[in-house]
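Task: complex structure prediction.
Instruction: return structure tokens for all chains below.
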Amino acid sequence: HSAGPCTIVIFGAAGDLTKRLLLPALYNLKRSNLLPQEFAIVGVAHTPISQDDFRSKLNRDIHEFATVAVDDQLWQQFEQRLYYLSGEFQDAKMYQQLHNLLTQVDQDCGTQGNYLFYLATSSNFFCDIIAQLGAAGLVQEDNGHWRRVIIEKPFGHDLESARSLNQNISHVLKESQIYRIDHYLGKETVQNILVFRFGNGLFEPIWNREHIDHVQITVAETVGVEGRGNFYEGTGAVRDMMQNHLFQLLTMITMEPPVSFDADAVRDEKSKLLKSVQPFTAEMVQTQTVQGQYGEGTVNGKTVPAYRSEPRVAPDSTTETYAALKLTIDNWRWAGVPFYLRTGKCLSARVTEVVVQFKQVPSLLFRDTSIDHLTPNFLVLRIQPDEGISFQLGAKIPGPTMQIGAVKMDFCYADYFGTTPSTGYETLLYDCMIGDATLFQRSDNVELGWRIVSPILDVWAATSPQNFPNYTAGTWGPTQADALLERDGRQWRVGT
Ligand code: BG6
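Output:
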């Protein structure tokens, strides 16, 4: 079903996110007939260009970044619905112009006063833009129309700033109008975690401390900071990835079954889970977390400079480009089960996956054979690339002696469903247009994520690492991260 009539207003329309992801996603929605006939996009940015120039720019962008070949006829229809307004985000006059333009667009395109404002700008502007939208009367919902705001990450810099951002915007918007994005939730494989757990009778009964030995979550990237030194210097891996993307994966894997897929039912369970993560004490930060920063190395056959030599990075920077931690969840389902999370840039391969290791059988039966150890059962949820799910079993190796080998049952998305290249933003944009906030973060979800990482960030800030850079680009990160698991008699499944 296509969404109802609306206009999407993109703040930061001349930026990277718009051309690489939002535009291709909207184009894909158009191709799939999920955009309404009564639809328009209004781009807002500083760049002083005309509407025609804006359309030509997006024409070039879509040909460069579309996930499928562009159908020129379809693009022309799309292009006719593109509008542009240049101005400063802090300038009240600009919002009056926007008001007038939106009224005009409503008349031209039949969009009925329904507006989705997408804040694809630097986070410094979030508060100002929302306040100005409020002052200009653009976010009041009445006369049967809706007004919604999508806020990109980073949502705050720490617990305090996230709280104050939530508080500020709550003066202007109702919670039901706020869509805090975490693009990991737009990934099919991430959404499928819920179907895997709650749509199959097989796994839920063993999804607990009785049967699961430990869980590993890896989000490894091969890219470095890609010219974003300025942003990344004040951010680091915990703020950029751990607090949001990895915690999303964690909650999907561990939360209790929600009573429905209703937005608040799901978000309630996520909050309950995050509340039960055992808080890090300063001592735990020393023993259960690892930070890293890459030095020069070779990634995918290319020489990569050290992080400290990247443009707009301090030569003595203490920003972490890698983070690993061990946490535990103090509830009945998970008490005592360790969760190991790691993420880093310039690692050896691009892999996002969740590994669930099950407990061993008592190996009494095989005591007298030549088998010295049985391999445990592993379930691997491959989020990207090579999306799929595999399960490792022990099987008898054919032959007269009793020998056991590890075999894999493997489900690949591509085999069953083909691959429909997409950006991951399609679902999120569509959901916002139809008013479904299930895949977006509520204020308490975000704050609880910050609450968990706060003590880590505090201790790290107070004790500047002396050993940076402590891993070579193109490897699997600092050796301390291996030691984190080895101390518990375990090892990372990928890269060791
Ligand atoms: C973004 C981070 O949120 O996620 C980037 O800011 C990171 O630093 C990116 O590279 C990773 O996303 P994906 O979808 O490529 O795993």
